[in-house]
Amino acid sequence: MDDIQNAVDERNWPIDQVGVSDLRHPIVVLDRDNRRQQTVAEVKMSVDLPHQFKGTHMSRFLEVLNEHSGEVTMRTLPRILRAIRGRLGAARAGIELTFPYFLERRAPVTGATGLMDYQCAFVGTAEEDSEDFVLAVRVPVNSLCPCSKAISDYGAHNQRGYVTMHVRTGRSADGKPHFIWIEELVSLAELAASAPVYPLLKRADERHVTMQAYDNPAFVEDVVRNVAVALRADARVDWFLVEAVHQESIHNHSVFARIRWERKGATRG
Amino acid sequence: MDDIQNAVDERNWPIDQVGVSDLRHPIVVLDRDNRRQQTVAEVKMSVDLPHQFKGTHMSRFLEVLNEHSGEVTMRTLPRILRAIRGRLGAARAGIELTFPYFLERRAPVTGATGLMDYQCAFVGTAEEDSEDFVLAVRVPVNSLCPCSKAISDYGAHNQRGYVTMHVRTGRSADGKPHFIWIEELVSLAELAASAPVYPLLKRADERHVTMQAYDNPAFVEDVVRNVAVALRADARVDWFLVEAVHQESIHNHSVFARIRWERKGATRG
Amino acid sequence: MDDIQNAVDERNWPIDQVGVSDLRHPIVVLDRDNRRQQTVAEVKMSVDLPHQFKGTHMSRFLEVLNEHSGEVTMRTLPRILRAIRGRLGAARAGIELTFPYFLERRAPVTGATGLMDYQCAFVGTAEEDSEDFVLAVRVPVNSLCPCSKAISDYGAHNQRGYVTMHVRTGRSADGKPHFIWIEELVSLAELAASAPVYPLLKRADERHVTMQAYDNPAFVEDVVRNVAVALRADARVDWFLVEAVHQESIHNHSVFARIRWERKGATRG
Amino acid sequence: MDDIQNAVDERNWPIDQVGVSDLRHPIVVLDRDNRRQQTVAEVKMSVDLPHQFKGTHMSRFLEVLNEHSGEVTMRTLPRILRAIRGRLGAARAGIELTFPYFLERRAPVTGATGLMDYQCAFVGTAEEDSEDFVLAVRVPVNSLCPCSKAISDYGAHNQRGYVTMHVRTGRSADGKPHFIWIEELVSLAELAASAPVYPLLKRADERHVTMQAYDNPAFVEDVVRNVAVALRADARVDWFLVEAVHQESIHNHSVFARIRWERKGATRG
Fold it and tell me: Is residue B268 part of a domain?
């Protein structure tokens, strides 16, 4: 049978990314307590394609995924990217895994526990002599409007908001990549907003969270700035993009804010 | 060329519905002030298929849609359904049009105006001697939790909620179908919740809405019951399904409630 | 603190369903080979609410879910529903779990394996003396148009389609509920279409599937009828709703067909 | 009432973008034949926020939108952006409008007409002395796999694909911005794929399109390269990002490819 993909292409256009997307696959991730968590990821995998080749051998992405989904963490991504580059004979490989990650959360007064889901992503690219990794975490929060509180005799509109952080870490003095846990970014986002969001609250907890939010009003601008202050203060972080979206409870639209930052002198890879 | 669709089918299975879906088309709807509003609908059209026919002539649905999208209202649906039945030689025809509908809303204190979008649907089916129409309207509202208010020293969690009403109307003494405006259902849902949601609020308006919500706490159960009371009291209404969903601002999940009701002695068609 | 939810309600409206939705939770399901598969479900849980009660204790749904997600199958649903009814003091309880289910699939020629995802749902309701369970499975398939093949000198448009089956089973002579595996419904849907869809195909497999589809053209009407014939012939099945949707590759819309059927004399619960 | 938004912020963080999102609004766009087309847009509007200000006056975005939605084209975007900058006292303003755009398409043999929807976006940003505009158009196409055709005795798997082009134009010698019509990008994408996708095809048309696709097999790599060749050859184009996604009819995932290009010496604004 012809191998059409290996035919020569004469349009003289290299392709930046070519691969598979909209793919679901079970993966195992590690949590901070070193427990293995099984979840389901949406996967996107790609390589570059030099100008002289007509096509990519798409089935090879699936082979690599099947072989490596046993443990997917920021630590194992380099191995997966190396496997993609090798199997597809590519100079550059990329992968994006988006998945729900679950944490047991304890209600603030009664201590009642339940599981909360956080949408996360691992995004990695690798070339011969460089690697780049971004961890993304989306944290639901409560946001209470400072303006509404200030101008009203009582009450204040509040709503669910989502804080999404994309973070790239640097390397320590001895060359090892710094590592940040999803759990750390969750805490950081919750502190930046009016109150955390919980899976399970009993009445005493609901009272606590209601008043905590009222005591900590925060515009969408405040939330992104609070996150930015905290991430910049973390020496492990070289680059971040943070976005907050509040699903306004007095409107049928959202408000959002975003800050992008890069540490001076930071180098990728 | 063969007409495969007209071939005889021997599996002896009539098909309840067969047709086209995931189709977008511009339509014109009438508002209460008799103005024509242009919007964009997601369309689903179907017929039944007797057991002896192999296939449906799908392109004919598109022909009918092109000819009738100039005005789509509860009043013109019967004409469209008749056209589908005729063109496809079917005993039964169905159509669903889902579309955003815009109303100019005035802020409660300053009177500042803006356009609000309401997701609506016209759902109709017709046979030789019967017709059935359902109007669906989804209204965004503010909901403030009665429990949170009662147990907290100050504040109360509130959030955006959506009230979705499916309503079937009866006929008047002279046999004419009763008619309900989208605008009427919007008002009814807003009265059932803690406060309306607006496109544009200035500071004085925001103060008003904040306190209005605090003065009118409503569980998701309250909202559906309030809507149910109002719809049952409306003699035009023969059947309804109402659902409220509150996007809890202290959780990452929603709460919902639904009531379905039919007037005794109501007959369809 | 006041227990607002237990207050008396005087609007005199019982509520059909009230509960939590849009909730994600990890669950464990059993596959046909008796292996435990961890996946992530979207969960909806509800109870009825008699007219005299103002509100529901929503946090109790979460407590039940946390206690029972260790194994969720059609066999364990009755236990979960009983727990909901008990904990919330309700006459009727309902649950819907929607989740991706993975099967290892073998390519038809080379035998290369990979994991395929099938969107599934368990839907259960229970009252004092009755229980009702529906299993839903959505199967991606290839569909090749018989009309296009018949009228063209070469080629035929084909596309991805989805066959969704909702199935309710009856009870055997000794009163035990019949049981159907997800794997059985997957096979049945694939046989009804032009060709199965695979996670991983090498060139020899792609050749096989291409010709298999060309040899088995099927309208959306054929697919639902083929499934209907097979489900009716299965004595375990008391009721089904089957829908096929083909994402037409020559249009920007889909075509669909659906059949609903109930075995004569079948009784629920 | 306090104007909290105007308070001084001491965290010393300017915000890149702050504004409103998830907003729906009717807009009027011009088509190539100079007819006004009413459609519905999803809108995102933003400004930058200097470090010394605590908050943004979000309601002003809505005021500007209400005043300018009467005609939204690449030509009127600068006026809207100027209005945002003025009303919010901002150095930089941004807007994104995403909307379905409808074209009457004629079937290739019978000439039967129907309306096709194309998802489009206008993306603009402006500062004191610079402006930047990107037009995005998503075109559904038919793609037939060259490998499947080459290795099979008959048939070839094909499927719906989407070609998305983001295009930035330059300025002519006399300083006027170049202008590209949505219609031009639609044609270009259709020529790059195996066959166009139509709203309404009669049997003779279906035969034509089936064979046209079989005669023009195209990998996802071919499609992006074909588009890239055509866009680079258009002297009006300074920058583009093109992505093709094929919803594989033999898999439950998609394949994709993307190329980004910038003309040498091109300057924005």
Answer: no
Dump pLDDT digits (tens) for C111-147.
999 999 999 999 999 999 899 999 999 999 999 999 9
CA D184 vs. chain centroid, Å, equals 12
Q: What percent of chain D has pLDDT over 70?
A: 98
C 195-234 residues with CB below 8 A of B? 219-222, 224-226, 228-229
Q: Write out chain D residues lying below 8 Å of A144, CB-based.
A: none
Beta strands in chain C (DSSP E): 15-30, 36-49, 93-106, 113-127, 130-144, 158-169, 195-196, 237-246, 254-262
For residue C79, count other CB atoms closer than 10 A to its CB. 13
What's the alpha-carbon Rg for chain D, to the nearest Å? Answer: 22
Instruction: Please say if the pLDDT value at position A268 is more than 90.
Output: no
Mean pLDDT of C163-172: 94
- Residue A19 is assigned to a structural domain of this protein: yes
Q: Do B1 and D59 touch (CB under 8 A)?
A: no
Residues of D in contact with B112 (CB under 8 A): 59, 63
Residue in A closest to C64 by C-alpha: A114
* Closest to B238 (Cα-Cα) out of B134, B94, B158: B134
The interface predicted TM-score of the complex, written ipTM, equals 0.93
Q: What is the overall mean pLDDT for chain D?
A: 94
Exposure string of C240-251, with b = 16+ CB inside 10 Å and e = fewer, is bbbbbbbbbbbb
Total domain count, chain B: 1
DSSP for D98-139 reads EEEEEEEEE-TTT--EEEEEEEEEEEEEEETTEEEEEEEEEE
Residues in chain B: 269
Chains touching B (3+ CB pairs < 8 Å): A, C, D
Q: What is the largest CA-CA distance in chain B?
A: 78
What is the DSSP code (8-state) at residue D171?
A: B
| Structural domain that includes position A11 | 4-262
Q: In this complex, is the C-beta atom of A146 within 8 Å of any C-beta atom belonging to chain D?
A: yes
Is residue C62 within 8 angstroms of chain A, CB to CB? yes
Report phi then psi at D210, rounded to 5: -60, -45
**Residue D40, both tokens:** 């519905």
Q: Which two tokens stand for residue A54?
A: 């007509």
For residue A252, what pLDDT is reported?
Answer: 96
Q: What average pLDDT does range C223-239 have in this prediction? A: 97
Q: Which long-range contacts (CB under 8 A, 24 or more apart) does B34-37 make?
A: B36/B71, B37/B101, B37/B102, B37/D26
Contact across the interface for D1 and A245, Cβ inside 8 Å: no
Length of chain A (residues):
269
CATH number at residue A218: 3.10.270.10
Q: Across residues B49-56, what is the average pLDDT? A: 90
Percent of chain A with pLDDT strictly greater than 90: 80
With respect to residue B160, please indicate whether it lies within any of the assigned structural domains. yes
Nearest to A140 among B210, B213, B252 (CB): B252
Position A140: which residue type?
P
Candidates B210, B246, B248, partner chain A, best to mutate (most A CBs within 10 A): B210
**Does the beta carbon of C113 lie under 8 angstroms from any beta carbon of chain A?**
yes
Give yes or no for B10 touching C (CB within 8 A): no
CA dihedral sign of residues C59, C60, C61, C63:
positive
Q: Is residue C269 part of a domain?
A: no
| Listed range (A130-144, C75-89, D63-77, D132-146) with the worst mean pLDDT | D63-77
pLDDT of residue D265: 82
Lowest mean pLDDT among B68-77, C15-24, D107-116: B68-77
Which residue among C102, C199, C207 sits closest to A62, beta carbon to beta carbon? C199
Q: Which residue would you say has higher pLDDT here, C26 or C34?
A: C26
Higher pLDDT, D1 or B33: B33
Q: How many CA atoms lie within 13 A of C154 on its CB side?
A: 13
